[in-house]
Amino acid sequence: MLVIKGLTKYFAKNTPHEVLAINNFNLRVKKGDFITIIGSNGAGKSTLLNLIAGALQPDQGEIRLDGKIITYQPEYQRARWIGRVFQNPLLGTAPYMSIEENLALSLKRERRGLRLGLNKYLREYFRSKLSELELGLEKDLAKKVGLLSGGQRQAMTMMMATMFKPKILLLDEHTAALDPESSKKILKITEELVEERKGDLITLMVTHNMKQALELGNRTVMMDRGCNIFDIQGEERKKIDINYLLKQFSKLRKQEYIEDRMVLG
Amino acid sequence: MTISLLLHALEQGLIFGIMVLGVFITYKILDFPDLTVDGSFPLGAAVATKIIFSGGNPLWGTFLAIIAGSLAGIITGLLHTKLKLTNLLSGILTMTLLYSVNLRIMGRPNIPLLGKETLLEEIKIHFPNISMNYLIPFFFLFLVIILKFTLDLFFSTEIGLAIIATGDNEQMIRSLGANTDMTKIIGLCLSNALVALSGAFFSQYSGFADVNMGLGTVVAGLASVIIGISIIRIPTIFWRTIAVVIGSLVYRLIMIIALRYGYRLGFKPGDLKLISVLLVIIALSIPIIKHRIDFITSFNLGRKDLQNNQKKEV
C-alpha cells in the first residue's frame, strides 16, 4: 500500500519565480493497482514521480509505503523497492557499459560489496530473460548499450526496472520518445511484465495518450496544477471513453478558473 | 647510450605508470578531472622521504604515503559531494592546501635521500646477484602488473561496477540504489592512493623529495592516458589499464628524448612542460582534425581532379 498525504512541492521557493508544482496531493494506492496519470504539461506528473522515487524532496506532506514513512529517505535507499523508466531512453542505461553489466547493476540494489558483479549463473539468467523480449539482445551480452537503438534500450530499462521484483514501478511517459512500432512493443512488454507480478506490484504510469490511459491499468488519475482533480476506477472507468475524459478535463479546469476569478475579484 | 635511455624511459614510465593508473580512474572512469594529483604526488614523496630520512622503515614510509594519498582523495571527494563544489574547484583547493601540508611534513622544501636505505635497496638485499640496473625495471614491472590486475578485479566487483556507472550515467545508477557520493569518494580515494604511491617510489628512485615536484603531474597523467587510449582502442577495463601504462611509457620516452636531444632544436629543460601540454593538445585534437579532413574530402572541396572524375562516373 502506497499512501500519499498532503504532498506539497515548490520550486524556487521564496523567490519571485516560485512555482507550486504539487499542491496538497492525496492518493491511496492498493497493491496490484496500475494507475495511469494524465494531465497537461506542467501539471506536476513527473514531479510527483520524482517525489515518490526520492529524486526530489517535498516541502510538506508524507509518503508511506506499507506503513513505513519514506518521505525524506534518499533516492538510493528507496531504489531497492522502486523501479523507474524515464521518458528519455538514454537516461535508463549506462551507454559505455555492456548489456550484462547494466543488468547486473539493476539486480543488486543494496549493500554492494566486493563480490564479483557477474558470474555464469547471472549470465544464464540474463540470457533467458532477454530472450523473452524477442529483440535478439541475448546474443551478445558484452555489447555496449550505447550501440543499441532507443527502443532496445528502453526495453532493457523496462527489464531492469522489474527484474528485481520491486514494490513500485514508475513509468514516466516511457513510450513518448519512441517510434510507433517500438512504442507498441514497449507497451506490450510493460503489460507482460506487470501481468507477471499481478496483485503485488504498484504501477504508476504517466502518459499524454488518453487512449493508452484508459486501455492500460485499472485506475486513472487526472492532475492539474499539482492537484489530483479526477480519480476513476473499476466499473465506472470501463464505461467512459476519451471524449468523456476530455470533456471532464475542460470542465474541471473551467471550474477552477471561475473559482480563481472569484478569489481574485 | 640508447639502451640506457630506453631503460630510463622504462623505469620512469613504470613508476609514473602507477600515477597514470590513478589518473585513469578519475579522468576516464569517474569522468572527474582531478587536480588533487598535483598535490598528492609530492605528498606521497614527502611522507615516504620524511620517514626514510629520519631513519624509519622505508616499507612503512611507503605504506603511510598510500594512506596520506587516500586521505587527500577523500578531502576532494567530500568538498565535491557534501559541499557541492565543482570537481575542478575541489581539486584545486585540495592541491593548494597540500602544498602547505607537504612543506609542513618535510620541514623544508627539499630532502635528499643520499646514503639512506630506500625500499629499492632493501629489495636489492634479497636479490644479491641481479644488478640494480635490471632489478629496478623488473620490480616496477612486477608491481605495475599486480596493480593492473588488482584494479581489473576491483572494477568487476559490484562496487567497482557501481563506480564505473557513476562516471557513465550518474542519474541512472542513483535510481538503481547506489550512493553516488560514496562511489565518487571511493574512486578519488583509490586514485590518489595510487598517485601518492607513485610519488613515494619516485622520490626513492631519484633520491630526493622536492615540494615542487608535483607541478604538472596532472598534465603528464592526462597525456599518458590519452596517448595510451589512442594507441590501444579496445574500450574494456582490461585493455584500458594496459593502454594507459603503455601511454605512460611512450610519454616518458618522448620526454626523455626531448630532454636529451631537444637542445639541438633549441629546447631547454624548462620547455618540458610546454612540450607535455602540446602533446595533450595534439593527442586530444587528432579525432577532431581527422573528422574535419573526412568532412572536407567528402565534398572534394578544391580538388578539381576528383570533381571531374565524379562527373565522368555520373
String of helices and strands of chain A: EEEHEEHEHHHEHEHEEHH
| CATH architecture heading of chain A | 3-Layer(aba) Sandwich
Give the helix level of chain B as a range of percent: over 70%
- The secondary structure category of chain A is alpha/beta
DSSP summary: helix tally of chain B: 13
| CATH topology grouping of chain A | Rossmann fold
Can you write the helix and strand succession of chain B as a string? HHHHEHHHHHEHHHH
CATH class of chain A: Alpha Beta
Count of helical segments of chain A? 9
What does this molecule look like?
The complex is a heterodimer of chains A (265) and B (314). Chain A is of the alpha/beta class and 265 residues long. Chain A has helices spanning 45-53, 75-78, 99-107, 120-133, 150-162, 180-196, 210-215, 234-239, 242-264; strands spanning 2-11, 19-29, 34-38, 60-65, 68-69, 82-85, 168-172, 202-206, 219-224, 227-233. In chain A, the strands form two sheets. Chain A has a six-stranded mixed β-sheet, sandwiched between helices. A four-stranded antiparallel β-sheet of chain A has the order 2-1-4-5, with helices on one face. In chain A, α3 (99-107) runs parallel beside α5 and α5 (150-162) runs parallel beside α6. The longest helix of chain A has 23 residues, at 242-264. The mean pLDDT of chain A is 90. Chain B has 314 residues and is mainly alpha-helical. Chain B has 13 helices and two strands. A two-stranded antiparallel sheet of chain B has the order 1-2. Chain B is globular and about 60 Å long. The A-B interface holds A 53, 55, 74-77, 79-80, 82, 84, 91-97, 101, 104-106, 108-110, 112-118, 144, 160 and B 154, 156-162, 164-165, 168-169, 171-180, 235.
